Amino acid sequence: MTALAKTKPSHPPGVHRPTPASLNAAAASFAALTAKLDYLDAEDTEQVRRAYRFADEAHLGQLRNSGEPYITHPIAVAAQCAEWKLDAQALMAALLHDAIEDCGVTKAELIERFGAPVAELVDGLTKLDKLQFNTREENQAESFRKMLLAMARDVRVILIKLADRTHNMRTLDDAPREKWGRISRETLDIYAPIAHRLGLNQTYRELQEESFKHLLPWRYAVLSKAVTKARSRRRDLIQKVQKELEGAFAAAGINVRIAGREKTLYSIYRKMQDKHLSFAQVTDIYGFRLILPTVISCYTGLGILHQMYKPLPGKFKDHIAIAKVNGYQSLHTTLVGPSGVNVEFQLRTEAMHVVAESGVAAHWLYKAADPTPASNERLGTKWLQSLLDIQDETRDAAEFWDHVKVDLFPDAVYVFTPKSQILALPRGATVIDFAYAIHSNVGDHTSAARINGDQVPLRTELKNGDVVEVITAPTSNPNPAWLGFVRTGRARSKIRHYLKTLAQAESEQLGERLLAQALRAEGLGSLPADDEEHQGMWEKLLRFTGNRTRSELLTDIGLGKRIATIVAKRLMTLLAERGEKPDALMLSRERFTAHETVSQGAVTLDGSENSSVRFALCCRPIPGDEIVGYLGHGEGLVVHTEECGVGQRLRFRDSERFFAVEWADEPVRTFETGIVITVRNDKGVLARVAAALSAAEADITHVEMSEEAPQDSTDLRFVIAVRDRTHLDAVLRAVRRTPSVLSAVRTVPAP
């Protein structure tokens, strides 16, 4: 995003040229950077200096809109990374981050000069300007995906990117005014939430403030004046509270560092917007942060505060025992201070303070005594890792962005496994989200769940403190309906990936059966094997159909994108070239029985076909009906009854897409069909009819009544699930015996 704030020598007259003053400023900036590198050894410092010289030469002649040499921007980005105490490789990448994009430097050149790790960091930061995209949104989604995946592999990428965006926002006044809105909105929607998700609170607040200032400058100015006035009015109050705090903690013998904390203007504005408050009604503008030596002293300090001032009910939060998703830990309490003014207090240790301000950057800033994997998870790396999982199942950039942005605004709930492990999930997350958060295999095979010991539906939303137990079964699989209520990107991508894989596998199986049936009609008993002997023949066939693999060809046949009879005829031609001839006996038998309803090559249906076979809603066929199969374009096999008018019209127009199908002897499930029941308008008649259907073992899946004005009689239209025609006849007989029922018949398909 750095290109937004620079000009080049080829621009029209009026562009600022370098001046001695601006060149001196650049030199001073690098001197300031050098002063911040005291934590690096001499060799690393020299490596950073080499990267600076290379970047300075690469950007020679380029200017920012302010008139400063462009190199001042990479130096400022590197300075911010040095504040976080990032290593030499990250600082070098920060200095070089625009070299590939703007200066024509290649990745290979960077590898040769500075090594592969630095080049990989720079490449992860480079936008995809050289690729062509259909829309700006697609471009942004693809760039964002590349950045996220790079940061999932190396978190330093996003730290450098956030430092880059922070400096651009600080200098946004120099950019053209018409760009302010777009850049500020992008920062608020994407970069600020990422900073928050990674625990970079200082950067998060600054990005929000700068975006607010440039997006809504008038509101920013009004709020700024109001806060300044309130600050001067409450100065005495704040000083009084601070004095009382120092006295109380000194008396208790606890060392404490007290700092004032003021709400940002953007957070005040959001609170006013979300809760429809005036500025005067926002009471917790001011607060205090207490940095204490140990966790025990934090809880002791909380007791001291509650002795000094009255706590507000419901305003205490313990983020030390249960850390936030991004690793943040503190005790929060709001107390009624002097003059009845509400004051918020935060209590934390020095280590917690570093993590609270710098998040994942605390890995470099603060060397924890116990650098366990668990502490790394608290710093947001678990979320970064999950991005790679989502990427494995999501090739479309826009879909990937849809999955990820859900997780950028977590507003978390904290729940427990039966073994008391804490999991943080976005608010609104369900049992299915919880199951996938544990493991994808658990999610895929979830069959039931208990919350706090009670059986609950899988769509149940989780609440803070819930103990969730997931029950799995080997036969359970993801249900498409789950996509309607899952909340996390991980769960959504896993479910979609499973359903896509399942649909493809089933379509491939159906395609193989349809091609085998078509080959029998040509006199060949089975598909030629996919072996070395037939490899050349399959390659020729794939060139003919335009498919890359045998599996893809069979899938396309199953989806109706290729017609099995045409593929079979071409296959027979290729076999004839090899000297293989059709079986004359099979050929004559197939042709002799072709006019029969069921030929020897018919596709057998037992109800286990799932998404590869659909039963037409116009006629709703059930076992016992005479049926035909229509291979729709891209929708697999659609089954109609013989007398269905829709099926007959399709056959007249598209006869080569029809295939012989037959019912299996023992279907494995029930099938839906429609019935119409005419009843007298007596009291309780619907309940009696429903009871009769239930007694006859028919499941009701849908019911509707005619919308005409009440008459002596009315029609009830049901969709019911039955085993076959024999079962349907028994159901209709049972319903006809019900009092107030005048007639009961199966719905007749339209002619």
Which labels suit this protein?
Beta Polymerase, domain 2; extended; disordered N terminus; six-stranded mixed sheet; 29 helices; alpha+beta; 4 domains
Question: If you had to describe this structure to a student in words, what would you say it looks like?
Answer:
With 751 residues, the protein is of the alpha+beta class. Helix content is 50%, strand content 15%. The protein has four domains: 2-215, Hypothetical protein af1432 (Orthogonal Bundle), CATH 1.10.3210; 221-365, 2-Layer Sandwich (Beta Polymerase, domain 2); 498-663, no CATH class; 671-746, ACT domain (Alpha-Beta Plaits). The strands form six sheets. Strands 3, 4, 5, 6, 7 and 8 form a six-stranded mixed sheet that branches. Strand 7 (331-336) and strand 8 (342-349) form a beta hairpin. Helix 4 packs across helix 9. The longest helix is centred in the last third of the chain and has 33 residues, at 489-521. The two termini are 62 Å apart. The relative contact order is 0.05. Mean pLDDT is 77; it is low at 1-28, 128-135, 365-380 and 594-600.
Task: Lay out the secondary structure.
Elements: E1 6-7, H1 20-35, H2 42-58, E2 63-64, H3 72-83, H4 88-96, H5 99-103, H6 107-114, H7 116-125, H8 136-153, H9 156-170, H10 177-197, H11 201-215, H12 217-233, H13 235-251, E3 257-262, H14 265-275, E4 286-292, H15 295-308, E5 310-311, E6 317-318, E7 331-336, E8 342-349, H16 350-358, H17 362-365, H18 373-393, H19 397-408, E9 412-416, E10 422-426, H20 431-438, H21 440-444, E11 446-451, E12 454-456, E13 468-472, H22 489-521, H23 535-545, H24 550-558, H25 564-577, H26 584-592, E14 603-605, E15 613-615, E16 627-631, E17 637-641, H27 645-653, E18 658-663, E19 671-680, H28 685-695, E20 699-705, E21 713-722, H29 725-736, E22 741-746
Parallel strand pairs: 4-8, 14-18, 15-17
Antiparallel strand pairs: 1-2, 3-4, 5-7, 6-7, 7-8, 9-10, 11-12, 11-13, 16-17, 16-18, 19-21, 19-22, 20-21
Helix pairs in contact: 1-3, 2-4, 3-4, 3-9, 4-7, 4-9, 6-7, 7-8, 7-9, 8-18, 8-19, 9-11, 10-11, 11-12, 12-14, 18-19, 18-22, 19-22, 20-22, 22-24, 22-25, 23-25
